[in-house]
Structures are given as C-alpha cells and as structure tokens.
Amino acid sequence: MADEPPIKKAGVEEKDTELPPDDSTPELNDVVLIVKGQKFSCSKTALSENAEFFKEKFFSLKSEDTDKLEVTLEDPKAPEEFDAFLKVINKERCLSDENVEGVLRLSILWQAPIIEERCLEFLTIYSKMDDRLKFDLAIKVNSEALKKRILSGINWMHDLHRMIPSDRSTWDHATTNLVFEKTLELSGWMPPDSCVNIVYPLAPMPMFSRRSHTMSSEPTPKKIKMDESTAQMSFDNSEDPHDIVFVVHGKKFYCSKVDLAKQSDYFKSMLFGNFTEKDKAEIHLNDPDTPEQFEAFLKVINAIKCLTDDNVEGVLRLCDQWQAPIVKERCIEFLTNGSKKSPKDRFNLALQFRLEVLKIRVLSELNTIEKLHRIIPADRSYWDQPTTKMVFEKHLLLTGYKPTMDTAAQWGSKALDHSREENRAQLLEPPRQRFLYADLLRHARQRDRAMEQQ
C-alpha cells in the first residue's frame, strides 16, 4: 500500500531495517493512544526516543499522563495521519505526496527531528510536487529547513519568480527574509566593503510620557510653509514676549509655553500637566546635545527654514523624543526635497527614526538594481518586517518580476478594463509603479499617525 516507489540511491546499498508493527509485539507496548476514536497500541519508550513531546508526556514528573494506560491525542487531524507517523518511526516506506504534509506537521509540532528529516528527504528526492507547492507546504507547516532546501536548489532568477505568489500577505518575516536573501544572491548583490553597520535602538521614551488633558480642546496646528525671510530669528532676547526660559548647556532660550505645547506632547505634559516643572520660570534641558540643536528645533517649530544636512539628524532625534509630529514631517520634507545626502544615508535615517514615509520616498527614487543594492547593508538583523518587505518588493520590481492579475486586484486597480495582455503591460510601466508607491506612501502615513497616537 506504500505510495512511495522503492527507489534506492545509486551506489548505496540500503538494508531493510523495518521493525514489526506495534500490534504484532504486544509485549513491547505499554500505552494506547486514541486519535479521533481509533486506538493505537504503542510503546512509550519508542515514541519518546523519536519525539521530545512524548518524552515529556510519558516520563516527565510534571506530566499527568505518566501512569495512564490510554491517552487521547488532539494534534493529529485524522487517524491515518498518526498511523503514517508511526510507520515512519518504524522506518516503513509509507510517505506519499498526499500524507507527507501531515507527518511533517506532526514531526515539527512534536519535536521529532528524525521524522522531520525523513519527510524532508522524501520531498527532496521522491516527491513529484513542483517547487512552488513544496514551498507553500513549508510555509503552511512552518518548516524553515524545507524552505532553505527548496531555495538552495534554485539557480536562476526567473525560476525564483515563478515560485513567488502574487499574494504574499501570509508570509511571515522569516519567509520574506529568506526569499529576499535569495533574490540578492541571484541578482549579484555584494556586501559593501566599507559598510559600517549600526544597530539603531528604539528612541528612549520621554521622561514626561503621561498625557495631560488640560489642553485636550486645543486644535491640531495646521501646517504652514517654511519662512525663509525670518531665518535670523533668535530666542536669546529676554525682552521678547515669553513665559518660560529653557537653559541648554548654559545658554538661555526665551520661549512661549503655548507654542511649544501645540507642537509637542512632551512639553504639553511638562508645562500643563501635573508636574513640578509647570510652575517653574526656568527649566534646564539635558536632551539636546548642543544649544544650536535646540535652537534649530525651535526654529522648525516656528516654520523657519533652517534645516541642513548637518543638523537634521539632531532635530529628528529631539522631535522623536519629544513627540513633535509636525517637526518630524518638516524634517521628512527637507530630506525628500532639500537634502544632498545620499539615498543610503537618508534610508538609514528613516530606519533609525522609524520614518515609513521617508523609506517609501527614498525607494521610489531608485530606478536601477545597482542603486538599490547600494542602500542594502551586509547586516540587516535590525531591519523590521515592514522594511524588509518594502525593499524586497522594490527588488522584485527591478529584477523583472511580473505580477499577475491577482496582484493588480490586490492593489485595487479595477480601472484597468482592457485585455489581459494590455493590463499586464500597464502594470509594468513606470506610471503604474509610481501608483504602487503612492499607495504605499498613503499607508505609511497612516501607520506613522497611528504610532504617534499610541
């Protein structure tokens, strides 16, 4: 009844080491396992030697099933699935394209590495499934080993593209990362020789994180254009109207509480919340590295055009710590349209301060695979899942991946009502690619706003 053909590896003599079925040697069996009403007479020792799950179940002092003569198993989906698992333990040739998924799933769930290896060997040598079906199976049962084996056998980019489905929403971070690594390998990416990889930690939470509701009725400030004519404005004149003085490394800044509270939740809590600072006339700030950094932050709040490639990182750090979304948007606008930093440097800033919108904008500028390769570091362990997915999708576009009509529907392109061939051509045109990134940009903005509201 075995579906697997008795194929032997060339040059290797395979001895038949099959054990007799459990029910033919009742003296060795000491437990009855029940699966969906069907009983299986088994040996606790044989099961525990092959699966960590049964070792814990039958021989752990904490287990309630140690002394039971009958135990019900809920993990197998059908008796046939568990029967095949037992036969593989006994080295019987029973694996087929129909039952290998269930046996592999149980071997991973029950931590049975020997059984898992036999399933992987069957899928690699004997199975008639194509690579895409095998890869889908690996994702379904969460087998990282099978994913790696399938990808290791792919040597051409078009073969890899055929295996990638249009809808990758079910892929986890590990799967996306594995396929992304393979696309980099096949496209000739090489780690930059002079690349210095920096792991960017999450920005520290501000000291005044509890929000105050004393100004909850305050309307959200509207965006205004940056004023270049008042770039020389200063905050060190004590004669200017002010109601609070901040001291940064010995330098005093005369400011307005309301103006700061409108732009920053940090100052809103500090100056109008239940904190001792709200009654002080002078407050020392330790967050800015230099007085010039704090002055640039104040100027950006007042829509003064002062951002440069030298000070934008410092301002971004302050607005991230002090929860100032409008200031962050103005920094993003500068890095998009006014900065002379390389795409790699701007992308690293976007990673450091979690600027999803800036990531999208930088990627949209890269129109060749060589340019994209320059921003990819050797160590990507600090990349989060959205970043990896974003760069992976861009890499697919630049390596000629042709999305099917399912992908078009996924992006909401119902306006394309021409023939299938015309639709496919429109999907690959630059305007269509710009539409995809505009859509991504809108989602990134929504994500940024949601993160700021948390």
From TrEMBL:
Chain segments carrying region Disordered: 1-26
Biased composition (Basic and acidic residues): 1-18
PROSITE patterns linked: BTB
Domain BTB per the UniProt entry, residue ranges: 29-89, 242-301
UniProt xrefs under InterPro entries: BTB-MATH_domain_protein, BTB/POZ_dom, SKP1/BTB/POZ_sf
Domain of life: Eukaryota
Name of the featured protein: BTB domain-containing protein
Organism (species): Caenorhabditis brenneri (Nematode worm)
Organism classification: Eukaryota, Metazoa, Ecdysozoa, Nematoda, Chromadorea
